[in-house]
Structures are given as structure tokens and as C-alpha cells.
From TrEMBL:
It comes from Podila minutissima. Keywords: ATP-binding, Kinase, Magnesium, Metal-binding, Nucleotide-binding, Thiamine biosynthesis, Transferase. Condenses 4-methyl-5-(beta-hydroxyethyl)thiazole monophosphate (THZ-P) and 2-methyl-4-amino-5-hydroxymethyl pyrimidine pyrophosphate (HMP-PP) to form thiamine monophosphate (TMP). The lineage of its organism: Eukaryota, Fungi, Fungi incertae sedis, Mucoromycota, Mortierellomycotina. SUPFAM superfamilies: Ribokinase-like, Thiamin phosphate synthase. It catalyses: 5-(2-hydroxyethyl)-4-methylthiazole + ATP = 4-methyl-5-(2-phosphooxyethyl)-thiazole + ADP + H(+); 2-[(2R,5Z)-2-carboxy-4-methylthiazol-5(2H)-ylidene]ethyl phosphate + 4-amino-2-methyl-5-(diphosphooxymethyl)pyrimidine + 2 H(+) = thiamine phosphate + CO2 + diphosphate; 4-methyl-5-(2-phosphooxyethyl)-thiazole + 4-amino-2-methyl-5-(diphosphooxymethyl)pyrimidine + H(+) = thiamine phosphate + diphosphate; 2-(2-carboxy-4-methylthiazol-5-yl)ethyl phosphate + 4-amino-2-methyl-5-(diphosphooxymethyl)pyrimidine + 2 H(+) = thiamine phosphate + CO2 + diphosphate. In the N-terminal section; belongs to the thiamine-phosphate synthase family. In the C-terminal section; belongs to the Thz kinase family. Coiled coil: none annotated. This is Thiamine phosphate synthase/TenI domain-containing protein.
Length: 518
């Protein structure tokens, strides 16, 4: 028999000791397959060979019924005895080369890897796939160390994109961390995980079918986000900064022609201003802070703004729902982590948002970006935070910070201040437009997030262009408003600012931009 073609998307790894007491392991396996499990590994540490073989035969009868491959953990003899579709071995077990020799060329062989070097060795040793772990803390075994999505990424990047080696991640994978793990671990070489391997998240769940359905849907959403990012944003496809700048007049004209609808979960202080700014620039806002509307809206809006300025439980629920549905619909998510480091609640919410969805563009002041850098383990410099406003100019090398956070989060980062910085991890620019009055009215940063969201709707495959265009458009409006004779202070500036967003011409986006590559 030739080697089966394997779908690695949702890989169940069993452990009878962790199986939910309400059912047998066989029931867990069957329920999980009915919920979408695509591959099963029988991993039973406490059974002797005879009992393991007997259980393996029973499990194989179930998996064969659904045409799902069964692999045996560690024990090649059992795999051969029951004619399983393959086996999985660890670094401390029989070698991969020996396992392949015993199994022959037509069985599936997987090996555990925790370093890029182990992954590269697996390429040479005849494995079909690698299990990359341990990703997160797990109760199922004592990990040597945890990799997190960034450690997983380093291993994916060690495997050439065109190599047939498949990859799954293992260790602490649950429905609420799957999406981020998959989207954030994607390598710069375009490699995205082929699947997730799960023990307790399935066998220990109250309902293994429902748990499997959720995990599979989260895996697919993470995979889609990662693939979308690389389709539009891989280095080969990235437009040069010069071409991006040249595209701005057309972007603004198209924005006005199409008037894209953006879903705002904004804050009480700026809701009216962000709605008016969106309209003035040419877009259409819908201010809808209820989670119950998020799914319906995700089908009709073009992008979403999540603003944590005035946090309540229902705002948080709505932001999480809106972000997830936007991801599922392929709509851009713009995150404005207002005052992210000011309180524990804001910090936790920021973390929860980044973990629960793929954020396409993060827009913040230096303090907010610093908090995100720290939360995501990015080795950037820190600055202090007080209230929702950032202190001082922030970083000694702001361009390096935005670039590092963008690279780590696989997204675009826009850091606003006297000079604004935008990076997608590869392209980084500094924008020198704007007026001091923008810093003296509340909500000017939030309005920038709204403008970015409108441009992201027009430029779905280049969010870097959208972020730069959004900042530039509002900064030019700020300059024009600040220069008006009728503007005598922040109050009159606020009205003039909105007027000048509406008056901005596409040509001014080209002729008045002071943007340089950094
Ligand atoms: C898919 C997958 N990845 C990794 C492992 C771990 O295997 P191993 O290192 O042999 O550890 P134990 O399973 O023996 O605890 C796995 N089983 N499956
Ligand atoms: C079996 C196994 N192997 C790991 C590795 O790092 O190689 S982590 C792990 C346990 C995974 O269990 P859970 O899904 O319950 O966290």
C-alpha cells in the first residue's frame, strides 16, 4: 500500500490517564473524529506491549471507519503488528533513521523537535513531519522548555518553504491560543504550520466533538490569517516605499469613491469625533459596541477598529468577537491600545486581544507600543506610562522599536508622536507632517486609527501603505487647519481639523508629504 496523503490540520494525541471520566478513550477518539480530527496518535505511557497492542487494534478499527490515519507513539513493533499507518518517535527514542528502516517507505513517520537543528536533522533522516514543541506550558508532561509562537517560528524558518516536510505544533494548544499560535509562528520564508497536535484540549474536554470543532475552526482561521499576510505582504510582493507614496492620491480617490464601512468599537470620549473624522475623509463609520452584532457586521464592513480607551466588560466582549469574526471574513483589524500600560485591566485586555485574533495594524503612542513590546517579549526599550498619554518622545531609536514589534507580531505597527513611525518589519518610514494642535485635542490619535482603518479597506493587501496613508492624511488636515486664520486655539482647531479632512485633495497627499525611509 502506498503512503496515505495526510491532512495534519487537527492531530489528536491520546492519553488515557487524561481522558474525561464520562466516556471511554475509544469514544473520545470517535467523537473527536466526528468533530474534525484529521489524524490520531495513540500515545499510552502506562500500558505494557500486550495491552497497548490490544488497545491499538480497537482504536484502529475506529479510525479506519472514518479513513483517518492512526500513528503509534514510540513503539514501532506495535505500529507494525497492527499495520497502523505510521509512528511518532521522540528525540530520546529509537532514531528516526532506524524507525524509517523498520517501517519502510510507505508508513508515515514523525519526530519531535525543539530546535532548528533537530528540525534540519529530521529533513535528512526521512521523517514526513515534525512535532514542534513544547509550545506552551502543559500538564501532560514536564517540558524541557517552552518555545512560544516565536520559538516555533524559528523552527519553521529552518525548513525550506518548498520542502515536503510537514509541521505540527504541540504543547498547551487550546482553542483560545490556537489562532495566534498559528498566525504568529508563520516564518518569514512563508512557512505556516500544517496543523496543531492536542492532548488534553480534546481527550479532557467535556465534549470531544465540540472541542475538536472549535480547535479546527481556530486552526483554519489562524492559517488563513498567516497565509493572507504572506500572500499580500511577503518580501517579494512588497511594493517599494517610493511606489507606496506614489499610490496615495489614487488611494484617497478610491476611498472617497467606495466609502468603505468601518466597524468601530471606540470609546465614549472620542466616539463622535472618530465617526465624523471617518465621514470627513470619505469613509462610512458604524459605531456598534455590542458583541451580538459582531458576526453580522463582519460580513458587511470592510475593516474594524478596536479601541480600548474606555474599558467595560461589554466593550471587551465586543472587541474579541469583532476581531475574531473580522479575521474569519478576511477584514482588516486595526488595534488602538489606548493607555495600554496605564492599568492592569488595560494590559490584560491588550494581551487578550493580541492572543485571541490576528491584529493587522497596531497604532499607538510610544508608551502603548512600549507596553506591547514588553507584553510580547520583544526586546525593545521601555518608557514610563501615566494616564493614557505617552510621556515625552519615548525611544532613542523609535524606528528600530516599531520594526522589531512589527516583525515579532507579524503585522504593521504605527507609532504616533511628533514624528510618526510606521513599519511592517521590513519597510520602515518616518512621517514628519502634522500640527502641534493635534496633540492638544482629545481623540486625534483615535481619529488616525479610524483613517488607517478606512485606508486598510481600500488597500487590503498592503496594510503598511494603509497605515502611512491614514497618518499622512490626518497630519495634512492638521497642518491645513492649524494654518487657518479662523483657528485661534484647540477648540476652533477641532472643527477646522474635521473640515480639512474633507477638503484634502489627492494631489496634496503627494506634494505635501514629508516622509523618509529609515
Ligand atoms: C505530534 C507529536 N509531537 C511530539 C510528541 C512528543 O513525543 P516524544 O518526544 O516522544 O514524547 P512522548 O510523547 O513520548 O511524551 C508527540 N507524541 N507527538
Ligand atoms: C505529548 C507532548 N509532547 C510535547 C513536546 O513538546 O514534544 S508536549 C506534549 C503534551 C501535549 O499535551 P497537551 O496538548 O495536553 O498540552
Amino acid at each position: 500500500m502506498s503512503k496515505p496523503i495526510v491532512d495534519y490540520s487537527l492531530y489528536l494525541v491520546t492519553d488515557s490517564g487524561l481522558n474525561h471520566p464520562s466516556r471511554t478513550l475509544l469514544q473520545s477518539v470517535e467523537d473527536s473524529i466526528r468533530g474534525g480530527v484529521t489524524l490520531v496518535q495513540l500515545r499510552e505511557k502506562e500500558l505494557d506491549t500486550e495491552a497497548f497492542t490490544a488497545l491499538a487494534r480497537q482504536v484502529h478499527a475506529v479510525t479506519k471507519k472514518y479513513n483517518v490515519p492512526l500513528l503509534i507513539n514510540d513503539n514501532i513493533d506495535v505500529a507494525l503488528a497492527i499495520d497502523a499507518e505510521g509512528a511518532h518517535v521522540g528525540q530520546d527514542d529509537i532514531t528516526c533513521v532506524e524507525a524509517r528502516r523498520l517501517l519502510g517507505p510507505n508508513k508515515i513517520l514523525g519526530i519531535s523537535t525543539g530546535t532548528p537543528q533537530e528540525a534540519q536533522k529530521a529533513l535528512a533522516d526521512g521523517a514526513d513531519y515534525i512535532g514542534i514543541g513544547t509550545c506552551f506550558m502543559t500538564q501532560t508532561k514536564t517540558p524541557k522548555r517552552t518555545l512560544g509562537p516565536i520559538g516555533v517560528r524559528a523552527i519553521l524558518e529552518a525548513i525550506p518553504a518548498d520542502h515536503p516536510m510537514r509541521t505540527v505544533v504541540i504543547g498547551g494548544i487550546k482553542h483560545d491560543n490556537t489562532r495566534r499560535t498559528v498566525s504568529h509562528s508563520a516564518g518569514a520564508n512563508g512557512r505556516v504550520l500544517d496543523g496543531i497536535a492536542v492532548v488534553t484540549g480534546i481527550v479532557g474536554a467535556v465534549d470531544a466533538k465540540v472541542a475538536s470543532e472549535q480547535l479546527l475552526s481556530e486552526f483554519k482561521a489562524g492559517y488563513e490569517s498567516a497565509s493572507h499576510y504572506f500572500k499580500g505582504e511577503n518580501s517579494a510582493a512588497r511594493a517599494s516605499i517610493e511606489d507606496v507614496l506614489k499610490s496615495f492620491p489614487q488611494l484617497l480617490s478610491t476611498l472617497r469613491e467606495k466609502s468603505p464601512l468601518t466597524h468601530h468599537i471606540s470609546n465614549y470620549v472620542v466616539m463622535n469625533d472618530t465617526a465624523n473624522a471617518t465621514l470627513a475623509l470619505g469613509g462610512s463609520p458604524i459605531m456598534a459596541p455590542s458583541a451580538d452584532e459582531a458576526e453580522d457586521l463582519s460580513k458587511v464592513v470592510s475593516s474594524v477598529v478596536l479601541n480600548i480607551g474606555t474599558l467595560t466588560q461589554s466593550f471587551v466582549e465586543c472587541m474579541l468577537a469583532a476581531g475574531k469574526h473580522a479575521n474569519a471574513q478576511g477584514k482588516a483589524v486595526v488595534f488602538d491600545p489606548v493607555g495600554a500600560g496605564a492599568t492592569k485591566l488595560r494590559e490584560t485586555t491588550t494581551s487578550n486581544i493580541l492572543n485571541a485574533m490576528h491584529v493587522d495594524i497596531i497604532k499607538g503612542n510610544p508608551g502603548e507600543i512600549s507596553t506591547i513590546a514588553n507584553l510580547t517579549g520583544c526586546t525593545a526599550e521601555s518608557i514610563a506610562m501615566r494616564g493614557v498619554d505617552s510621556l515625552g518622545d519615548g525611544f532613542s531609536n523609535p524606528a528600530a522599536v516599531v520594526q522589531a514589534v512589527a516583525k515579532r507580531e507579524n503585522c504593521v505597527v504605527a507609532m504616533t508622536g511628533k514624528v510618526d513611525y510606521v513599519s511592517d518589519g521590513v519597510r520602515t518610514v518616518a512621517i514628519n507632517n502634522g500640527h502641534p494642535y493635534q496633540g492638544r485635542i482629545t481623540g486625534s490619535g483615535c481619529m488616525i486609527a479610524s483613517a488607517i482603518a478606512s485606508f486598510a479597506a481600500i488597500s487590503p493587501n498592503d496594510h503598511f501603505a494603509a497605515a502611512v496613508a491614514g497618518i499622512l492624511a490626518l497630519n495634512l488636515a492638521g497642518e491645513h487647519a492649524g494654518a487657518r486664520d479662523d483657528v485661534r486655539g484647540p477648540g476652533t482647531f477641532r472643527a477646522a481639523f474635521i473640515d480639512e479632512m474633507a477638503n484634502l485633495t489627492p494631489e496634496q497627499m503627494l506634494t505635501e508629504a514629508r516622509i523618509k525611509t529609515v
